[in-house]
DNA sequence: TAACAATATGACGAATTTGTGAAAAAAGTT
DNA sequence: AACTTTTTTCACAAATTCGTCATATTGTTA
């Protein structure tokens, strides 16, 4: 689970981050200002955003409103010190999915986060990289050419991905071995050549136009 | 908006029904027992179910649990007289999306209902999905082929539904586990394979033409 | 162009992943 | 409580992928 926390109180912020991590939330981003919350939310995907009601530089309610206006569909949980019905209603009207009144217990926060992320219908995030006539899907390990999907084996995919991420640079065998098999791997250099061959065959790269060999150095995909 | 209210207190029940209608909720069904709530929920579609914590003949928490187990994906709001954190957490853990502590104001109930229905309704969800020779009814959890109805178990249905909602993409085992069993579920990955097998058998997918395996990644239903 | 070094290729067994059926465990019904 | 259905686990079978090796091909340099 990936969470964005917008809380200006340093003590409370640190505490929540600490507790969330302890409870097994993989990734927690923490910002202290409303503007930052807005930017972070739009810049990457979060399962839940925890927004403090009062924030310097853009309060929680208006950040929430703007996010919804912008078409943001992820779950938003509002934190508030106020317990007045009218305020709570205002937060929900602004587009928050839930709120929690301070002070609260971490167990309740976790339960609410779980409930929220469970209900999130956000589409599965897909990272797609274009490469000439190909479309590379980094989450599903698939490669599409002219609408036709081909399936790369794990090794083939890792290699292609590595080469694409370093497009224009020549990767030495040492580096490839390190990045794909790990520095302590127990495989011979020849394995790399073999994998390159399998990948070339699968993508139809007969004349080695797509993945080029740099003799004496390694392999590369040109820019 | 269509709402199911499960509340045994006649006075409160009548009041809520009256107020909801006054606030513009088109359709309100009101039951007074836990078993009835369960049956009504599975029999037709509601935007939100308002479940009282204490109900004769099946309390709110267990009704909620059973509904989720059965693959019910509509929003559930729990009503409770208790304000103890542990009780609230218990309700959320049972699969409720939200709770409200009695006594509450009708404005707050309305705001929460709106927030809940907005969240579950945000993405367009077809009630009946066509899939080749099949017709999938997401409300009644049934699958029809050539007019012949087959019965899927909850798990089988959830899996099929998940795959169909993501037609054309490959779902990794991690994501499947997350979406069907929950990210903190305590089942082995093999359970997924087993469920896939049961589903394939039931829909007559001997050659794995309908549900395809993507080795090293997961499963998919192609577009 | 001969000789050498680096890379490509294809085949084969080992390792990993997925499929399968049976049986245990859990949940739901009567 | 007895019974049925569903879910999960487990052990083994089948399929696929991986890594190595022997050999072929290509490129470089003297």
What does it look like?
The structure is a homodimer. Chain A is an alpha/beta fold and about 220 residues long. Chain A folds into two domains: about 1-120, Response regulator (Rossmann fold), CATH 3.40.50.2300; about 130-220, Arc Repressor Mutant, subunit A. Chain A is about 40% helix and about 20% strand. Chain A is built from eight helices and twelve strands. In chain A, the strands form three sheets. Chain A has a five-stranded parallel β-sheet, with helices on both faces. Chain A has a four-stranded antiparallel β-sheet with strand order 6-7-8-9, covered by helices on one side. In chain A, strand 4 (about 75-80), helix 4 (about 85-95) and strand 5 form a beta-alpha-beta unit. The longest helix of chain A has 14 residues, at about 105-120. The model of chain A has no long low-confidence stretch (mean pLDDT about 85). Chains A and B meet through helix 4 and helix 5 of A and helix 4, helix 5 and strand 10 of B. The structure holds a DNA duplex (30 and 30 nucleotides).
